Amino acid sequence: MKYLFRMFLFDIKMSFRGFMGTYIAVVPLLVLCILRFFIPSMESSSFTVAAVNKGPHAVPQEVLDVLDAFADIKTYDSIEKMERKLRGTGSAEGLYRDPDKGTYVSVPERNPEGNAAFSLTAQVLRQHYYREHYPDAPDITTFSSGVPPELSERTATSPVATMGGAIFLVFMVIVSSFIIGLGVVDDKECGTDRAFLVSPVSKSDYYIGKSIYPLLVILFYTILGLLFLGLMHVNILQVYLLVLLSFSITLLVGLLIGAIAGNENEAIGIGKMLAMIMLFSILGGTLLSDQWQWVVWWSPFYWMYDNLEAILTQTASWSAFAWKSALMLGLCGLYFALLRKKIVSGLS
Fold it and tell me: What global pTM score does this model have?
């Protein structure tokens, strides 16, 4: 245990010694920030009414209460401020009262010249007017603010968060693999691996010690990713179990990089090629129709992504989680068996 801890500290020191190690550790945080930026807020993903509530153009509270059942109401004390809201992002309509004509003015966010279609606000107000003045007249249209029964089980989470979160965690597998591979290659270049041969550290201690830091990195970024993307309501146990099981991919890819590459540039090139395989697996799983999904079944990245997407959309059952994880582990074991001689000779 003492030697493992020393290997862990040595690995961290060597990782941050050069630019590439620091870059690899920081880049995932930048990726998370970009993903977070593209997740729509509640206001931008729902219908918003920007209404004037003060002065001569104020909309009465009674009317705002009627609209509140169908939209997110934002109030402003002038028409100018209301119009400024319409120039922002999101689906919004403006509303104010014309005191001279005694009518309401609905201002669509985008109103092409000659557009004769009624805005949603105008339709709700027309129905409210007829209900108030002609209570016995039948409704021409009715509105419902609820979710239709056929959509009641859909996830309320943004697809940017669920799909982006799944891709991010698969991406972290590649990042962790880079950390292992570059660490082994750096030891080769510096001759550190030969020094370990005459030290009390065994080969198993060496590679286990090399794995601790990347494992901590992927575990840290997993919880950080769930927090950033608003996914803390998913099954955390399933997420972490899958991340731990997928570390088998990290070890396979990391050791392969370390065995084949002779220097840092070669390691980066091999890592990029393996990252392209990961990207191909994900694109195949998302873009191919169901009858063509088998084209990417050979990739453990595909099964990890498919499992993650089900977990993050809260549609994963434990039975499906188990057999997909077993397939992922089985493929990793198969590829290690096929590449074992190459890996062992390259690391010797």
Answer: 0.66
